[in-house]
Amino acid sequence: MLTTDILIIGGGIVGFSVARELNNRYPGLKITIIEKEATLACHSSGRNSGVLHAGFYYTPDSLKARLTAEGNRLLTEYCLHNNLSINQCGKVVVAKDETEVESIYELKRRGDKNGVALEIVDEQRLAELESNAKTHSVALYSPATSVVNPKEVVEHIATSLKEKAVLLLNQKFIKRYDTSTIESSSYKIQYKYLINAAGLYADKIAHQFNVGRKYTLIPFKGLYMEYKDSHAIQKHIYPVPNLKNPFLGVHFTRTAGGKVKIGPTAIPAFWRENYNGFSNFNINEFLEIILHEAKLFCTNAFGFRNLTFEEIKKYNRDYFIEQASHLVKKIDRTKFGNYLNPGIRAQLLNKENMKLEMDFVIEYGENSAHILNAVSPAFTSAFSFSKYIVDKMEELDLRSFVGANGLVA
Questions:
Q1: The pTM is what?
Q2: In this structure, what are the phi and psi dihedrals at residue 57, rounded to the nearest 5 degrees?
Q3: Alpha carbon distance 120, 125 (integer Å)
Q4: CATH classification of 1-50+149-213+357-409 is 1.10.1750.10, yes or no?
Q5: Domains of the chain: which residue ranges?
Q6: Are 329 and 133 contacting, i.e. CB atoms less than 8 angstroms apart?
Q7: Looking at the DSSP assignment, which residues form a beta bridge with residue 236?
Q8: Mean pLDDT of 15-37
Q9: Separation CA 297–CA 347 (nearest Å)
Q10: Helices H, strands E: what count in the chain?
């Protein structure tokens, strides 16, 4: 039996950021983090693009809008202060035709309301910013968009907590034992407050606490492909997204190390860790997810059928490349290389209305908080998101056992 004040399930960017925020406010708390893998950032936190988004995609009434601009600033400052890899290259969003121009202006309106520095540019100005970008009439320039090495960031935050929190690797959450105890791979752990930041399995864990039962997770596979010419672009180049779903479309990304890649896809996956072939295949997950996806396909909820047909076509290499090619003036198709490390987007589905949740979702149970939908831009927003979560915990019941001096009352 282990005992702790705060138990965090999940050693990803959100879990460590919450631990960091709690330690900053209450240095006397005993914080324990359990991670089911042997190393850190094996899933979403280490497989994402590393792009620090500026915060202009999101409707002004959303948590994403509220938290992303601040999160970008805080994580940028953290990387610069700690000499971590960061490429502050900026981003342009380009339009394919006249029908997409209005969406450019809508993104500018959202950005203005969200406090994001943006510039509508004409084709001449775009050529000065990014000579290879191609647009129709106008484009949107975001100077605050940058990119980091996500694994490096997670590992650095974890290292900074080494003497302040207990990290237990190879410790999978097994079950809720009672109202203040869980069972992991090797231990029973007694806690005063639990934070579920388990990403791909956050919904399953929450259900054991009788929280979030109207939700389930639908996984989407994100594939990237390398482009073997680091001089092809100097900034990220994104298409105008479909604002009715949470995916941003295939785009060109510069990495923190200056390399170039295209992606990602948003292909419906059939189990939660459906990265490559049949690795990590789980028959129960497969049956459950395929049932939900069949319902979505038949009803075409939120355009799922159309999305599925479009995304599956991206398994075709030539088609995938074509989706990125229209963003630039010139491209050498012979320089596209291998597919890179795939990721899974843990997207939350509301089973009552059969819609994807577009915003962050956190629900609270008895002495517990459950982070159910922490999709992009959760990496960007990690520090501001963790402040928001701890604020809510304080409002509810965290202060019931934490004194003003940060010691257990």
A1: 0.95
A2: -80, -20
A3: 9
A4: no
A5: 1-50+149-213+357-409, 72-147, 215-351
A6: yes
A7: 91
A8: 97
A9: 16
A10: 11, 25
Tell me the two tokens of residue 349. Answer: 């589905």
Is residue 197 helix, strand or coil?
coil
pLDDT tens per residue across span 277-302: 999 999 999 999 999 999 999 999 99
pLDDT class of 246 with cuts at 50, 70, 90: confident
Question: Which residues, in sequence order, are bridge partners of residue 2?
Answer: 189
- DSSP per-residue string spanning 385-409: HHHHHHHHHHHHTGGGTB-TTSSB-
Q: Do 221 and 342 contact (CB within 8 A), yes or no?
A: yes
Residue whose tokens read 């979560």 = 389
CA atoms 178, 184, 186, 189: torsion sign: negative
What are the distances in angstroms from CA 181 to CA 169, 174, 290? 18, 11, 33
Mean pLDDT for 302-312 is 94
Distance of CA 88 to the CA centre of its chain: 19
Residue 190, SS3 per DSSP: strand
- CA pair distance 118, 144, nearest whole angstrom: 9
CATH of 72-147, one of 3.40.50.2300, 2.30.110.10, 3.40.50.620, 3.30.9.10: 3.30.9.10
